[in-house]
Amino acid sequence: GLERGAKNQFSTFSNFITTINQKKEGIGNRSSPTQLVIPNIKNVRDLPPICLDVRQKQRISIDTLPQELKAPIPPEPSLPIRTKTVKDFQDDVEKAKSSGDWKAVHDFYSTTFDSFLEINAAFKKDTNSPFNTIEDSGINAKFVNVVYDALLNTPQDVQKSVLKGIINGLLQEWKGPRTKDDLRAYCILLQNPQFSNTSTYVIYAHLLRQIAALTEADHHFLVHWSKKISQRRFKQLVDRLLQFISLRLFPAKPEEFPPMVKCTWWIPSATKVLALFNAANSLISPPIISYTDFYNSTLDHIDLMEEYHNWQCYGNSHRFSFCQYPFIISIAAKKVIIQRDSEQQMISIARQSLVDKVSRRQKPDMNMLFLNVKVRRTHLVSDSLDELARKRADLKKKLKVTFVGEAGLDMGGLTKEWFLLLIRQIFHPDYGMFTYHKDSHCHWFSSFKCDNYSEFRLVGALMGLAVYNSITLDIRFPPCCYKKLLSPPIVPCDHNTLVGICDVTLDDLFQIMPELAHGLSELLSYEGNVEEDFYSTFQVFQEEFGVIKSYNLKPNGDKIPVTNQNRKEYVQLYVDFLLNKSIYKQFAAFYYGFHSVCASYALLLLRPEEVEILVCGSPELDMSALQRSTQYEGYQKTDLTIRYFWDVVLAFSLDLQKKLLHFATGSDRVPVGGMADLNFKISKSETSTNWLPVAHTCFNQLCLPPYKNKKELKQKLIIGISNAEGFGLE
Questions:
Q1: What CATH class is the domain 506-613?
Q2: Among 129-138, 271-280, 571-580, where is mean pLDDT lowest?
Q3: What DSSP state is assigned to residue 199?
Q4: For 371, phi and psi rounded to 5 degrees?
Q5: Helix residue ranges per DSSP H, 360-427
Q6: What are phi and psi of 306, to 5 degrees?
Q7: Among 664, 675, 671, CA closest to 630
């Protein structure tokens, strides 16, 4: 604390530490969870448990509470009368800047932040109105912003007076539930830009602790009020919390903060408050900021598997783990968790196979440690389906692929090509499993009924194997597909439980069938008489193999007209029919196929968008980034051949760039970590320049002869990458 080594960074508070100590003595030895303990860090107690188990609540959903909670509301104390306006304050600041006399400004700040009552008196839009609803916080946001924007440009004694006032407010002995004025004060104090400075972190930590310990009902109000904050300031609040967590984990100067063992509640408190902002962000469509803005890349450098195992073992206890708040973990970190979890499962399954073999006194061989898939190129789909069905018990082993009649050894490259060719065939329109929608450039499940849905299970298993073996696929499913794939994220034990069913909206339909979604949107906004002008019923029609079939959206739907009053219900049932009910059997088979390989608690950490990135990688190619991260063997990056190569590649069309990437790596998609994760290497090939380039896709390596000029290099490279199917041994 301040008594040991922390005086330097808190020297700015020296003129009022005595006052704080007097307040602390007045409070005595009572151990209130909201007690501020700057003078003596020894007395810090752990917070009450604030962590929700993700396995019980996969997302922190504050919005599940009713809008007006019927909890007893404590009476609001009467507020002092404060009449200063934004203009009055701005005039005071301008006068202070020109005259050098900051007394009026100092008095305003010291009075305003002296207590929660004073904060409300200054910033509440109308002191006579209760503002007890989630729709309106009653905060004069413009005034708050102006006051905070001016604060960091005021003299140090003004800034110290604000911090002193905040300490006074936090030191109060709270009894019973908070009033809405208290919540307003918390909301305003969180926006204080002084908390970006590490010297204020002890105060900031206690503010966060009190907010984290509020009831769920109070959090409900804070979440809804927070979503009204402007995008720029919302992002600043999130960044400030992320910085606080990062610097507590890896302090630049460890002596700046109390010992970690004395403040174990700092990071849980900050993460819980960050969860409130994440919940607020999720309530708005489109969200205020991207979900990736909540990632804390610092967590990429901690022991992620220890976090994951703690979460698995102690999920229902009070032990904190970042995995309880997956929104803060980056997709790169989640990929590491999933890969290591997959590797551990692979090792476990392989070890069990070995033990079984030895226990039967049979001679073990290396092939038993892998999922060996042997296929003919001419019968790719049927052979793959047969192999995966026959070797279902081996799906969690490391995948190895052999093409019959080819000498290639699978060090990764054959696996990549198997995925690529299989996906191409299955998604071909002639195959009939998926429908390609040109307007949205994505595939969706065919609603045609059939006797056997095993091929949909195969596609799901392929996606699972791709994630399990860290392969990216060129699959174009809409985001809705990945939302359904996580509904639920863990396969239910009861096989009668519906799977792949999720809440769908008109926005989901827009991403698949934009023209139809636009028509339904027009129906919702139509100002005339819907029943007379559209003459529709709660019935839909679909063509199946040339036959028009009708389906009721609800019992006796063909007899229920669509009217102005029930059109919202009609649209919702129509969307649900198209995206859930009409393809249920197809998607259920797909769901079970995916989870037969990828069954893991790690899926609980993922958002639907993150599953898509893990499966498909990113389609955005940045060849300049690839150039920066490329390694060389036998060449220097300044060699003429290499300079020719990059001149040619950077001038390629997107299609040729994708072909080059596929030729060299076996996939035309970019992995989660970007181009740098490819570990792309260009090696010098000591062969005749009449030869074409050669690639080792297992190692993402391109072997390039020393071509004499740019024209020859371009010609040979295009021929090579345009004829890139098939493998052989040198």
A1: alpha beta
A2: 129-138
A3: G
A4: -90, 100
A5: 380-390, 413-426
A6: -65, -40
A7: 675
Q: Does domain 338-484 have CATH number 3.90.1750.10?
A: yes
pLDDT tens sequence across 24-73: 444 333 333 333 333 333 333 333 333 444 444 444 444 444 444 444 55
Please state which of the ranges 164-178, 423-437, 538-552, 642-656 shows the lowest mean pLDDT.
164-178
Report phi then psi at 490, rounded to 5.
-115, 130
Catalytic residue among 51, 263, 323, 698: 698
Residue listed under structure tokens 């195969």: 458
| Position 297 pLDDT exceeds 90 | yes
pTM of the predicted structure, to 2 decimals: 0.79
Q: How far apart are the two ends of the chain, measured CA to CA in Å?
A: 68
Strands 442-445 and 434-437 turn out to be: antiparallel
Contact call for residues 83 and 135 (beta carbons, < 8 A): no
Measured in degrees and rounded to the nearest 5, phi and psi for residue 537 equal -125, 175
The residues that bridge with 172 in the sheet, in sequence order, are: none
Confidence of residue 558 (pLDDT cuts 50, 70, 90): very high
Q: Are 262 and 3 in contact (CB under 8 A)?
A: no
Domain ranges in the chain with CATH number 3.30.2410.10: 617-723
Q: What CATH number labels 617-723? A: 3.30.2410.10
| pLDDT greater than 80 at residue 243 | yes
CATH 3.30.2160.10 domain range(s) in the chain: 506-613
497: amino acid identity, one letter: T
List the one residue out of 663, 671, 662 whose CA is nearest residue 629: 671
CA-derived radius of gyration, the chain: 31
- Among 175, 165, 162, CA closest to 33: 175
Cα 441 to Cα 242, 438, 512, 560: the distances in Å are 37, 5, 8, 35
If you search the block for the tokens 């098939």, which residue do you land on?
Answer: 726
Helices (H), 428-566: 454-468, 479-485, 506-510, 514-525, 530-534
How far apart CA 440 and CA 516 sit, in angstroms, is 12
Q: DSSP label at 29?
A: T
With pLDDT > 90 as the criterion, what percentage of the chain qualifies? 53
Q: Is 695 helix (H, G, I), strand (E, B) or coil?
A: strand
The answer, yes or no, to whether the previous bond of 488 is cis (omega within 30 of 0) is yes
pLDDT confidence of residue 75: 60
Instruction: Assess whether 323 carries a catalytic annotation.
Output: no
Give the HSE-up count for residue 91: Cα atoms under 13 Å, Cβ half-sphere.
5
Question: What distance separates the 2 farthest-apart alpha carbons in the chain?
Answer: 95
Distance CA 139, CA 229 (A): 11
Closest CA to 620 of 472, 426, 510: 472
490-494, 667-671, 682-686, range with the lowest pLDDT: 667-671
CA-to-CA distance for 579 and 481, rounded, in angstroms? 9
Bridge partners of 442, per DSSP, are 437
